[in-house]
Amino acid sequence: MNTKYTVPRGTSDILPKDAYKWEYMESLFRKVAKSFGYQEICTPIFEQTEVFERSAGDTTDIVQKEMYRFQDKKGRTFALRPEGTAPVIRSYIENNLGSDGQITKLFYIGNMFRYDRPQAGRSRQFSQYGCECIGTVHPYYDAENIAVFWTYLKTLGLKNFVVEINSIGCPNCSETYNTVLKEYFQKSLEILCPDCQSRYEKNPKRLLDCKVPQCKEIAMKSPSMLDFLDERCQIHFGEVQRYLKILKVNYIVNSRIVRGLDYYTQTAFEFINNNLGSQNALGGGGRYDGLVQQMGGKDTPAVGFAGGFSRLLLSLEQENLYQGEFARPKYYIISFNEETTSKAIEILDFLRNKGIYAEFEIEKTSMKSQMKSADRLKAEYTIILGEDELSQNMLSLKNMTTGEQKQIALDKIEELCL
Ligand code: AMP
């Protein structure tokens, strides 16, 4: 049978020619997050389904339509994680991470899974980076959390993005606002998409989040949440902006941001690259003061964000930004026969044990083919081990950029590590 296997729809391979770009994006994120005092946490890629149903809210698209659910052999239901916050909070509670009464700052990098319609910038398996700051209501931490994301993108060199912020208030403000919104949308109810008709009943704020053009147009003219904030939320939003200014984060206020998940309160924000087409959000986040308690922990406020690496990579490519470096050997060893080959392997092993990338291809025996390989791999130097060299206990070292050549005594090969 002639079967041709392909990757599942909505997923892709990261090939060696691109892997170093991912390594670069991930390592830089780790570095920036750590400099803001965040520590790494890794949670499993699947959780009990309730972890997401309880947290994200069962009216959200993620839970209703996009979650990969499965049963194990004992009939228990699990879900592949569609997002990173709920698992981090589950772990925070389970491991008592806040028991010292201090603020807990956690970051993660990992694959998420959503059964979504695949298109440019949207896949079914995608990698996210995120930061959660748990245990404080202070508005400085909303600004600091936004600043991690901002600093990361700036350090990558990205220019084409904007930070949009909003406050969606607390349950107290939402009560009035939801009524006003329902009044507003009621006259257009019949022309709203079916999803919006159900949002109208269950969670009117999510009407502002619809991507269907007709719904979007109606939502554009709806009353602004910012006009319905109570005094506490107004002050909080003002303070967040004050700290953002001190942190030199440029932002605009966009009162239409609601975020896709139910657990957000007060601050909501998005990082947008308008050159990315319809999937233009690099990431987003906000404050979620009710979530820890909702998931069974103590009443604990928190703020966090998540961004996606694939849209980030598209953005970096659009701006022709440096994305790390394809690893190239420092040394390519050239040898011609069995005698010199044993020595070649010894030197190769010596260099690799010193952590130096060295290459040797045992099946190639001609100078020409080995030089060609050294060029193809962009080796910095070639080490030539001919019979002449060996008889003098020497090796020849050639700088592949300048063409300069010199000899080194075999009992001084430590010099290669300098
Ligand atoms: P969200 O959790 O939906 O706010 O997503 C945060 C970020 O993750 C988005 O802004 C995207 O960069 C990325 N993201 C979310 N869903 C997908 C997806 N289906 N495919 C690729 N990236 C995604």
Care to describe what's here?
The protein has 418 residues and is α+β, with helices and mostly antiparallel strands. The protein has two domains: 16-170 and 230-318, BirA Bifunctional Protein, domain 2 (2-Layer Sandwich); 331-417, Rossmann fold (3-Layer(aba) Sandwich), CATH 3.40.50.800. The chain contains 14 helices and 16 strands. The chain has helices at residues 16-35, 49-56, 61-66, 85-94, 139-156, 171-186, 194-202, 213-220, 231-246, 291-294, 309-318, 338-353, 367-376, 387-391; strands at residues 39-40, 46-48, 69-71, 77-80, 104-113, 125-134, 162-167, 252-253, 265-272, 281-287, 302-308, 331-335, 358-359, 381-385, 394-399, 405-409. The protein has an eight-stranded mixed sheet with strand order 1-5-6-11-10-9-7-8. Strands 13-12-14-15-16 form a five-stranded mixed sheet, sandwiched between helices. It has a three-stranded antiparallel sheet with strand order 2-4-3. The longest helix has 20 residues, at 16-35. The chain is elongated. The protein binds adenosine monophosphate. Adenosine monophosphate (AMP) binds next to strand 6, strand 10, strand 11 and helix 11.
